[in-house]
């Protein structure tokens, strides 16, 4: 990093998503605004013996549309998603990677778990067939940094590149770190976000064993994720990716790019409280939100919308509500707060990628997607959660919160370009 370079403004110019709705940002946004659930009974494996039997699967996904089929087979599904998201984001930004100075072009795509499908399938081969049957591609396929590495190979990005692993905050941290790299002069263009593919027998067995997932609504999958509702009983897993093209304002303007919004702030804090439970007092998450408002040079009253972590677990939604009130005071009750996880499921390390995209789209269109399945208000969750129906309103500033096991908090602030 050059010490004497001025802080540069950073904007979002491209979005690529893979979710249970399908591929691409237009399909993603249309379904969110319509309040459509992308959650159904899991089909990729037999869930009969699992307490939680629903999820938001990308059953449509064809990796061969985005990378050589032979290369796709050598990579885990989470890496395939990341390559797809990166290519769609570049197309959306109308940006040819061959026209970017490669040394100034970086990739930060995080994952909370990495190649869980690879871990599961190769472990099975080891125990059933012996060590000689384990794939030579197992290790490079399962490591959590490989999505960033493969994307860089695919698009020729030789700038900053690594994989951030902070559980469900991974995608948010990746975007935040990319923002700082561009702002501080280490890169001109970054692909940043998260990718996850943990809808597997092993993934469900582990999360069900720790009683983190919903078990009460297997017969009505569309209603199973109900953030901030009194009847919530756990999260619903999703899979997919969210990748953003981020670049300096100067770089974007020089090529006549269409700009979604500006990145105004980023904060990373830690609860230092418990490996899985958020801090009941929300001190560190509240501080993260306070930090980004200060960094953006605005006041709490200027924030229009928060895309909450809102996992539909009893503790998260209650404690996140408290953290928002701690950070915003009286202004908290004037904020629009929604969780899109009721529709997309919880994409773990990819959550911050698609939810940052939500913030950018909300600013562009002045539309806030709803919190669906909000039927029975919880006295502990008493903010404006944009219940059940999208809202048209001026969105000048939006924030994205994501929390991860280990006490990791990440908050991003986005604002209209002015």
Briefly say what this structure is.
The active site is at residue 168. This protein is α/β, with parallel strands linked by helices.
Please tag this protein with its features:
nodulation; Peroxisomal Thiolase, Chain A, domain 1; 33% helix; membrane; alpha/beta; 418 residues; Beta-ketoacyl_synthase; lipid metabolism; 11-stranded mixed β-sheet; 2 domains
Walkthrough of the structure:
The chain contains 13 helices and 15 strands. The chain has helices spanning 25-33, 69-73, 77-92, 116-129, 138-142, 146-155, 170-183, 201-209, 249-254, 283-296, 314-328, 341-344, 351-365; strands at 10-19, 22-23, 40-41, 54-55, 105-110, 161-162, 189-196, 240-248, 261-270, 305-307, 336-338, 367-368, 391-392, 397-404, 408-415. The strands form three sheets. Strands 1, 2, 5, 6, 7, 8, 9, 10, 11, 14 and 15 form an eleven-stranded mixed beta sheet that branches. β14 and β15 (408-415) form a beta hairpin.
Strand content: 15-25%
- Domain count, please report it: 2
- Write down the Rg: 20 Å
Helix and strand composition category: alpha/beta
* CATH secondary-structure class of the largest domain: Alpha Beta
InterPro entries: 3-oxoacyl-ACP_synth-2, Beta-ketoacyl_synthase, Ketoacyl_synth_AS, Ketoacyl_synth_C, Ketoacyl_synth_N, PKS_Beta-ketoAc_synthase_dom, Thiolase-like
Organism: Coraliomargarita sinensis
Subcellular location: Cell inner membrane
GO molecular function, one term: 3-oxoacyl-[acyl-carrier-protein] synthase activity
Ordered list of secondary-structure elements with their pairings:
Blueprint: E1 10-19, E2 22-23, H1 25-33, E3 40-41, E4 54-55, H2 69-73, H3 77-92, E5 105-110, H4 116-129, H5 138-142, H6 146-155, E6 161-162, H7 170-183, E7 189-196, H8 201-209, E8 240-248, H9 249-254, E9 261-270, H10 283-296, E10 305-307, H11 314-328, E11 336-338, H12 341-344, H13 351-365, E12 367-368, E13 391-392, E14 397-404, E15 408-415
Parallel strand pairs: 5-6, 5-7, 10-11, 10-14
Antiparallel strand pairs: 1-2, 1-8, 1-9, 3-4, 7-8, 9-15, 12-13, 14-15
Helix pairs in contact: 3-6, 7-13, 10-11
GO cellular component, one term: plasma membrane
Keywords: Acyltransferase, Cell inner membrane, Cell membrane, Fatty acid biosynthesis, Fatty acid metabolism, Lipid biosynthesis, Lipid metabolism, Membrane, Nodulation, Transferase, Transmembrane, Transmembrane helix
Catalytic activity: a fatty acyl-[ACP] + malonyl-[ACP] + H(+) = a 3-oxoacyl-[ACP] + holo-[ACP] + CO2; (9Z)-hexadecenoyl-[ACP] + malonyl-[ACP] + H(+) = 3-oxo-(11Z)-octadecenoyl-[ACP] + holo-[ACP] + CO2
């Amino acid at each position: 990093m050059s010490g004497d370079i001025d802080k540069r403004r950073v904007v979002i110019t491209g979005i690529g998503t893979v979710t249970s709705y399908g591929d691409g940002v237009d399909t993603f946004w249309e379904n969110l605004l319509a309040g459509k659930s992308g959650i159904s009974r899991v089909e990729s494996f037999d869930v009969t013996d699992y307490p939680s039997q629903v999820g938001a699967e990308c059953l449509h996904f064809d990796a061969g549309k985005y990378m050589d089929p032979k290369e796709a087979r050598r990579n885990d599904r989470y890496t395939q998603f990341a390559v797809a998201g990166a290519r769609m984001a570049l197309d959306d930004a109308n940006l040819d990677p061959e026209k970017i100075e490669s040394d100034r072009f970086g990739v930060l795509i995080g994952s909370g778990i990495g190649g869980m499908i690879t871990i599961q399938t190769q472990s099975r081969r080891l125990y059933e067939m012996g060590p000689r049957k384990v794939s030579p591609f197992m290790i490079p396929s399962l490591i959590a940094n490989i999505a960033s590495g493969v994307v860089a190979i695919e698009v020729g990005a030789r700038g900053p590149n690594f994989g951030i692993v902070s559980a469900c905050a991974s995608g948010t941290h990746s975007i935040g770190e990319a923002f700082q790299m561009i702002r501080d002069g280490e890169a001109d263009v970054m692909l940043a976000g998260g990718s996850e593919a943990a809808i597997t027998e092993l993934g469900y067995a582990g999360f069900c064993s720790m009683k983190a997932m919903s078990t009460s609504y297997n017969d009505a999958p569309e209603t199973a994720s109900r953030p901030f509702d009194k009847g919530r009983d756990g999260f619903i897993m999703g899979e997919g990716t969210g990748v953003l093209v981020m670049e300096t304002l100067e770089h974007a303007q020089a090529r006549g790019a269409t700009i979604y919004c500006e990145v105004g702030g980023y904060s990373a804090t830690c609860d230092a409280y418990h490996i899985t439970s958020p801090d009941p007092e929300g001190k560190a998450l509240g501080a993260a939100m306070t930090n980004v408002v200060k960094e953006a040079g605005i006041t709490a009253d200027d924030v229009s919308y928060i895309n909450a972590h809102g996992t539909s677990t009893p503790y998260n939604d209650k404690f996140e509500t408290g953290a928002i009130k701690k950070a915003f005071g009286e202004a908290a009750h004037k904020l629009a707060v929604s969780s899109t996880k009721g529709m997309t499921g919880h994409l773990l390390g990819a959550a911050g990628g698609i939810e940052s995209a939500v913030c950018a789209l909300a600013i562009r269109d002045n539309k806030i997607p709803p919190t669906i399945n909000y039927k029975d208000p919880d006295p502990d969750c008493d903010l404006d959660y944009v219940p059940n129906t999208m809202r048209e309103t001026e969105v000048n500033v939006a924030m994205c919160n994501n929390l991860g096991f280990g006490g990791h908090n990440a908050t991003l602030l986005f604002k209209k370009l002015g």
